[in-house]
Amino acid sequence: YNYIGYLDYKKERIRKLSMKASTCSFNPGVFVANLTEWKKQNITNQLEKWMKLNVEEGLDSRTLAGST
């Protein structure tokens, strides 16, 4: 998997992240986290921010990711 399969690079907000579309992304079926770092870096708030932005601006590419 790479980011081009999940993010809509036509959107300016995505392009501003300066992430290469060909960079490998995470496997959505597997998740491992260091909970100490999770708390230290306040990851929950960061995830909630991105989920809200995705709902408001449609940052992901549902068509590319295989959703309907």
TrEMBL record:
Q: Which Pfam families match?
A: Glyco_transf_8
Query: What subcellular locations does the record give?
Result: Membrane
**What is the membrane topology here?**
Single-pass type II membrane protein
> What is one term from the GO cellular component aspect held by the record?
membrane
Task: Return the SUPFAM superfamilies for the record.
Answer: Nucleotide-diphospho-sugar transferases
Molecular function in Gene Ontology: UDP-glycosyltransferase activity
Residues in coiled coil = none
Print the keywords alphabetically.
Glycoprotein, Glycosyltransferase, Membrane, Signal-anchor, Transferase, Transmembrane, Transmembrane helix
Annotated InterPro entries: Glyco_trans_8, Glycosyltrans_8_dom-fam, Nucleotide-diphossugar_trans
Q: What family does this belong to?
A: Belongs to the glycosyltransferase 8 family.
The entry's protein name is Glycosyltransferase 8 domain-containing protein 1
Organism of origin: Mustela putorius furo (European domestic ferret)
